[in-house]
Amino acid sequence: MYALRIFGAITSFIILGLTLAYLMMNYYNDKNSKFIEIDANVTSTKIITQRRKKGGVRIGQIQINNTVTEYQPVICYTYKVDDQNYNGCFNHNSGYQSKSSADLVIKDYPNDKEIKIYYNSNDKGQSQPTKEIKFPYIPVVLLSVFMIVVPLAFIFGQSSNVERYNQPTLTFNI
């Protein structure tokens, strides 16, 4: 009877993990379906220069930092929904190590160029350059794997060394 209760608890844990993964995927798919493609016109572009620390060395009382300069192209645009104008901007990629690389990106977006963007049908002022909202795969997958593998380890593992050390040790039969 005790083994049946443990099996039921472990099975419930596995089902909970699978249900959580399924619900998260549906939640993000539902959010993606609310974004509608529309034409927009580029109004301006700029390059944001960012300096950030990347490592460093401490020699006695002196700290020597290694700083990196990144160039972030930003594209601003305007779009019209239901006879109302909206504005938006997006960062193109994560940043470039050279200003000339960022300038090449900016050249692809001259003023008044027509581009495709996606606006949120529930909040027309919210827009983005791609339709998809990134699904947080890594945390959900790790949590789901944990909620599946740990119970399976208890199901297929066997307790040994109880007599020898008076403590259960979990071993796996593969």
Question: What topology emerges from the helices and strands here?
Answer:
Blueprint: H1 2-33, E1 35-59, E2 62-81, E3 84-91, H2 99-107, E4 114-120, E5 127-128, H3 137-156, E6 157-160, H4 162-165, E7 169-172
Antiparallel strand pairs: 1-2, 1-4, 2-3, 4-5, 6-7
Helix pairs in contact: 1-3
What does this structure look like?
The structure is a single chain. With 174 residues, the protein is α+β, with helices and mostly antiparallel strands. The protein folds into two domains: 77 residues; 85 residues, no CATH class. Helices cover 37% and strands 40% of the residues. It contains four helices and seven strands. The strands form two sheets. The protein has a five-stranded antiparallel sheet. The chain has a two-stranded antiparallel ribbon with strand order 6-7. A hairpin with a 2-residue loop joins strand 2 and strand 3. The longest helix has 32 residues.
What share of the residues lie within helices?
A: 25-40%
Query: What is the radius of gyration?
Result: 27 Å
Q: Which percent band covers the strand fraction?
A: 35-45%
Helices and strands, in order, run as HEEEHEEHEHE
Count of spatially separate domains: 2
Largest sheet: 5 strands, antiparallel
- Read across the widest sheet, the strand sequence of neighbours is 3-2-1-4-5
Ranges where pLDDT stays below 50 over 5 or more residues in a row are none
User: Total strand count, please?
Assistant: 7
Give average pLDDT, whole number. Answer: 77
- Determine the structural class based on helices, strands and strand pairing: alpha+beta
